[in-house]
């Protein structure tokens, strides 16, 4: 439990653990972690994350391996912040390719889902963030022919932009406008967080991956500047 006021475990079990570098080249680095069984998560999990820069931007590939003798429940998410140089996110033009969002309780745990069409959370066609406050998980993602879902951030004057893409392993996107951060960082960037499952999935089982002994899960996402 690391979000004590809400009695939650937030931002992952391996966030503060000692990863080790297992590969390095001019344009890439690979990090690995072996998670040993513990009372809170009694499973043996091997993780490898490769960060690679290329002409199309940053690509992140994650592999998860069940190193133990029993089935292993698994979900993963990442927490990049994006900016296009505006003073606040209010001036950012945001496009989120989603048809539905999750509803949450006062602890931030999902209680259901509903359509976003015509609501303040509808960024399907792209629009300025304005005063909208987002700490919202989007799902039922709209994907291109390559299977990727793409979130676009654009400068209001068209000066620059960035796209975060996810493959089909990531079925959820948490969009966060930073309204609860310290004043110096509040609403200065948009977090676009690829997630393989929704919050509370270890308890609810919703879209939770289950790896057999020796099984592997692989997913990828990336950021492309424009």
State which percent range the strand residues make up. Answer: 35-45%
Question: Going across the major beta sheet, what is the strand order?
Answer: 1-2-3-4-17-13-12-7-10
**DSSP strand tally:** 17
Structural class: mainly beta
Distance between the termini: 39 Å
Question: What is the mean predicted local confidence, pLDDT?
Answer: 96
The name of the CATH architecture is Distorted Sandwich
**How many strands, what sense, and barrel or not for the largest sheet?**
9 strands, antiparallel
How many domains would you count in the coordinates? 1
Instruction: Please give the count of helices.
Output: 1
CATH class: Mainly Beta
Contiguous runs where pLDDT drops below 50 for at least 5 residues: none
Helical fraction equals under 10%
- The gyration radius over C-alpha positions equals 18 Å
Order of helices and strands: EEEEEEEEEEEEEEEHEE
Judging from the principal axes of the Cα atoms, what is the shape?
globular
CATH topology: Beta-galactosidase, Chain A, domain 5
